[in-house]
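Supplementary Note 3. Input sequence used for the single-chain structure prediction.
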Amino acid sequence: MKRHNFNSGPSILPQEVLRKASEAIIDFNGLGLSILEIGHRTPWFTEVIEEARALVKELMGLDDTYSVLFLQGGATTQFMQVPLNLLPVGGQAAYIKNGIWGTKAIKEAEVFGKAVTVGDTSDRNHSYIQKNFTVDEGSSYLHYTSNNTVEGTQWHSLPAAGDTPLIADMSSDIFSRPAAFDKHALIYAGAQKNAGAAGATIVVIKNEILGKTGRNISPILDYQRHIKAASMLNTPPVFAVYVSLLTLRWIKDQGGLIEMEKRAQARADLFYAALDQLDVFKPLVEKEDRSLMNATFTTKNKDLEAPFLELCKQNGMVGVKGHRSVGGLRVSMYNAMPISSVQALVDLMTEFDKSK
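The predicted structure, written as discrete structure tokens, is reproduced below.
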């Protein structure tokens, strides 16, 4: 049975990346050693991480005023590491609460200082993006989640931060479209959506924002220490970084972020057009704020949800069930998703709609 992988993360990877990664497990670059066996301080791996770092900057159009780190702990660790490194003692930061991940980020920031919520969409179950808000001039930064994986909303323009440094959790839409990356002071993302395999976390930092908190930071959590050590402060996730390198190469070879956005829009247009016209299903997000990566919806009759999920299972549709915290249905359409899989799902939804 052909599988169609709509998992939200870890998620679909390009077949070319999977093939090259599997070959490297047996023999990395003809060395007679597995990628799993080489030392992280050898020239073999140093070349991997340096090329990956360079490709991140190239795809984002960033210069050497930015540093790129490959860390561990996922975006969840960054919820803590960002305020630890950027929120001054006695200071405050502004946060936008557009979903579960923004909410978790706020809770972590409150450990280190005052986290002011300037935008909150919980009044409507985070089904829209609140674009009008005010950021206090005393805020050290404004933090937002560019794409809300659980709720299915996405920022399609930058939040109005004024002169306040902008921080973005881009875990689920990084490298899916061109963006004003240079308008950000810091960007972080777990790699397991569009940028590789689980285990690596990409952090992009404008160097000038560091070293201003007035607090002692544990070395292993200090961005400046990681930059100085070139992400080698401890053993990096070697294989995950290599998969990120392969994925970044693939993105570049396919035409870069312009091509990724073109494909993302085509997938989303196909899916949402069907969702809006079928009688059985109901979208959960305002049209203007719908995510190109994660489409959330439900059945109008809750009793039909289980039969639809069973039909998906029978037809090789993986990962269609919604996040455990909100339920419903969700399909994730990341960079490596072929539009043929979206078409197969749309055909199945149409068939289900006609049968009810």
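The chain has a mean pLDDT of 97. The longest strand covers residues 114-120.
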